[in-house]
Design a protein that fits this description.
mainly alpha, Growth Hormone, Chain: A, 2 domains, 19 helices, disordered N terminus
């Protein structure tokens, strides 16, 4: 018995694999994209707007493919799907290095986005939900923190490679490196569910609940998608992503207030530290006090950070603290959004429900960034934007209460089984 207890549960090896796969997909591929924009546009002799159109195409493809990806995750072999996905995502990234005209980015943005749907959006939350009954929030937090850490490592590496070898070779090197690392990780570590290893989910053995029972418990997709809880969750996804998108505008906000570029860099560094800490702490809190209470706490902290930006913008210290708090809250996208989905709807059709609700994330990415920019262009200040963000936080608080009220109605009607 002691020997059995001393063994590391395989769920933690799943988490290691996800940290590498999701972390490299987000950090080394998605998050380094901005570093290539200026050198590529300059060499091709095109405008930055024309080049970055590929990012909009990618967002639209993500929006279309998310519900399809959720169904595929539920139906097909997980290893084959993820290997195919990383070949599409990292392969398209590497192929950018061979392109000599902007249409190449437009075309390759399609496989880049399709692969990214599995690697960076769906797979992590779905597999953690399958493998962790206990410490689900902690696992999501660790995965989010790992993605941030790998992104922080990848950024300077990519920047140095672009400077020394050029953007073309850097695309190829990074894309090939991700393929070489991630494919063996998927083959060696990733399993769809505990029953594939003859195990129960981590924590299930404590109360004797069978793995198969746990994995089938929840609300069916057909019922969930018609419920108020589902629409409230989708709204939460949309608004939290829209709020977090403001981080791109923080340097411009600071410049408008008279702060230097160097100070903006420091503030954004603190923001990223907030994201890393938030991913871990919000994950732990969701296990301790529940996803509902943790989400409400995150929203209140977010309101505090915006009030600090509105009323204490003359204080460099308070602005820096506000950015850290806002980063802490932004981590809720990767940590609290999946745990809310699990708490509200269970594991029965989780992959499909989470993928459908994630449409809110994709839509927000397309709308929020340019909307903030247009408001600033028309008003010359971000004051109206900040008040809109406060309103979005308040709406999210209402949405959380409504979602859990709707869930109770579904359970009382006998839909949780």
């Amino acid at each position: 018995m002691d020997k059995t207890k001393s063994k590391i549960h395989y769920a933690w090896w799943i988490l290691v694999g996800l940290c590498l796969m999701v972390g490299l997909g987000k950090g080394a591929l998605n998050n380094t994209a901005g570093l290539f924009i200026t050198p590529v546009a300059k060499d091709l002799g095109i405008g930055i707007g024309n080049l970055t159109l590929y990012l909009s195409i990618s967002s639209i493809v993500t929006l279309i493919f998310l519900p399809i990806g959720g169904k595929m995750m539920a139906k097909y072999d997980i290893k084959a799907l993820l290997i195919g996905a990383i070949i599409l995502q990292a392969g398209a990234f590497a192929a950018f290095g061979f392109m000599k005209a902007v249409w190449g980015w437009y075309i390759l943005s399609i496989p880049l986005a399709v692969g990214g749907v599995f690697i960076t959006v769906i797979a992590g939350p779905v597999l953690i939900n399958q493998w962790f009954k206990k410490s689900n929030g902690l696992a999501l937090g660790i995965m989010g923190a790992a993605a941030g850490a790998l992104g922080a490592i990848s950024q300077p590496i990519a920047g140095n490679l672009i400077a020394s070898r050029g953007w073309s070779q850097t695309y190829i090197i990074i894309g090939a490196a991700v393929l070489i690392i991630v494919i063996p990780v998927i083959l060696l570590l990733i399993r769809k569910s505990p029953k594939d290893k003859g195990l129960q989910p981590y924590g299930a053995a404590a109360d004797g609940e069978a793995a198969t029972d746990m994995n089938d418990k929840g609300i069916a997709m057909a019922v969930a998608k018609k419920s108020g809880a589902f629409y409230a969750l989708t709204l939460f996804f949309f608004l939290i992503t829209a709020i977090a998108s403001f981080s791109i505008h923080i340097p411009t906000f600071l410049a408008n207030k008279g702060y230097s570029v160097e100070f903006s860099g420091t503030v954004m560094g603190i923001y990223m530290i907030g994201v890393l800490l938030g991913a871990l702490i919000l994950g732990v809190l969701s296990d301790k006090i529940g996803s509902k209470n943790t989400s409400l706490l995150a929203m209140l902290l977010g309101i505090l950070s915006i009030f600090m930006l509105l009323f204490f913008s003359e204080s460099a210290t308070l602005i820096t603290i506000a950015a850290g708090i806002l980063g802490f809250m932004a981590a809720s996208i990767g940590t609290l959004a999946p745990t809310l989905a699990s708490t509200l709807f269970g594991s029965k059709d989780y992959s499909q429900i989470y993928a459908m609700a994630s449409l809110g994330l994709a839509v927000a990415s397309i709308i929020a960034l340019p909307a903030y920019g247009y408001v600033y262009d028309f008003t010359g200040t971000y004051t109206m934007v900040l008040w809109i963000i406060v309103a979005m936080f308040v709406i999210n608080i209402v949405a959380i209460f409504y979602a859990f009220k709707s869930k109770k109605q579904l359970v009382d009607q006998g839909h949780w089984n």
